[in-house]
């Protein structure tokens, strides 16, 4: 199963981290020295994705600008002899035509955002990556999923899953666990935010998916679900009646950067993973811990 395209839903308002996101998209908040959106695009590129589809909204134009070439900046860096910085920008520059942008126009939920990408994706399997969830690992989460998908049928769907404490399952979409094969298992049911004590497992659905194009037909007429939004989980439940779903218990450290605490933890984790920053960061943290 070849996965060439990835959808990035980036139309959200980022209300959990206001006021930082009042004038800046949450996807452009920086973890160490790179915006969130750059991390997930790099993850997709590492996994072999060729076309990057962004579902945007109002005031998100800076995301498109970030992946464009800035001639004035290039000229200034060249004039000042900053070759290292030029190389970083050149490395991050996408190929011409490799990125597409479409508008969601109304905050109707993740399922609706994915549906907005239907004409760009077309009739082929595709990945969905939520930009406010980062996974610290090499290879990345999506690369692990695509490697797993290669061993499955052409009409299979995959979801990255993570174990969460049993008392928190009501805060997540949860999947049931069927037949296991290493870190992968058949999903035998899904439920969005089950009542406490009713969850089929403690495996939560995280922000990485590989889906078949038939999901668009279901989303076309999907009724509003939890929160009055069109939920992707509800559409996946519908698709699971005719197609297989598998959970991938990926290897890596997931960080929810859409929350204040998660954002801070991600900065520490990604900073400590950098050889050029680790020693200074460790020393600074030691000082604050002593206080």
Could you please describe the fold and organization of this structure?
- The protein has helices at 36-46, 61-66, 71-79, 83-92, 110-115, 118-121, 141-149, 215-220, 232-239, 260-272, 278-290; strands at 5-9, 30-31, 34-35, 51-56, 99-103, 126-129, 133-136, 156-163, 173-181, 184-192, 203-211, 244-249, 253-256.
- Strands 8-11-9-10-12 form a five-stranded mixed beta barrel.
- 33% of the residues lie in helices and 25% in strands.
- With 291 residues, the chain is α/β, with parallel strands linked by helices.
- The model has no long low-confidence stretch (mean pLDDT 91).
- The protein has a single domain (5-290), classed as Spore Coat Polysaccharide Biosynthesis Protein SpsA, Chain A (Alpha-Beta Complex), CATH 3.90.550.10.
Tags for this model:
291 residues, alpha/beta, Spore Coat Polysaccharide Biosynthesis Protein SpsA, Chain A, five-stranded mixed beta barrel, two-stranded antiparallel sheet, 13 strands, globular
């Amino acid at each position: 199963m070849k996965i060439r395209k990835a959808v990035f839903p980036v139309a959200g308002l980022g209300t959990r981290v206001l006021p930082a996101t009042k004038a800046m998209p949450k996807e452009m908040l920086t973890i160490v020295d790179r915006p969130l959106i750059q991390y997930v695009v790099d993850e997709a590129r590492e996994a072999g994705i060729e076309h990057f589809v962004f579902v945007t909204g109002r005031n998100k134009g800076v995301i498109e600008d970030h992946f464009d070439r800035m001639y004035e900046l290039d000229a200034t860096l060249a004039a000042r002899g900053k070759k290292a910085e030029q190389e970083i920008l050149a490395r991050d520059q996408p190929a011409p035509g490799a990125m597409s942008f479409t508008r969601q126009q109304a905050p109707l939920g993740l399922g609706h955002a994915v549906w907005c990408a239907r004409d760009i994706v077309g009739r082929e399997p595709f990945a969905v990556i939520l930009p406010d969830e980062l996974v610290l690992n090499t290879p990345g989460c999506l690369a692990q999923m695509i490697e797993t998908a290669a061993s499955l049928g052409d009409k299979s769907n995959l979801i990255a899953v993570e174990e969460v404490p049993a008392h928190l399952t009501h805060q997540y979409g949860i999947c049931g666990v069927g037949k296991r094969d290493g870190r992968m298992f058949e999903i035998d049911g899904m439920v969005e935010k089950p009542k406490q004590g009713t969850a089929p497992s403690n495996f939560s659905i995280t922000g990485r998916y590989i889906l078949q194009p038939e999901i668009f037909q279901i989303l076309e007429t999907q009724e509003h679900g939890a929160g009055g939004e069109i939920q992707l989980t509800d559409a996946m439940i519908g698709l699971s009646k005719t197609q297989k779903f598998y959970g991938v218990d990926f290897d890596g450290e997931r960080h929810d950067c859409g929350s204040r605490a998660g954002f801070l933890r991600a900065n520490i984790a990604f900073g400590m993973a950098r050889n050029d920053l680790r020693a200074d960061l460790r020393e600074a943290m030691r000082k604050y811990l002593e206080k």
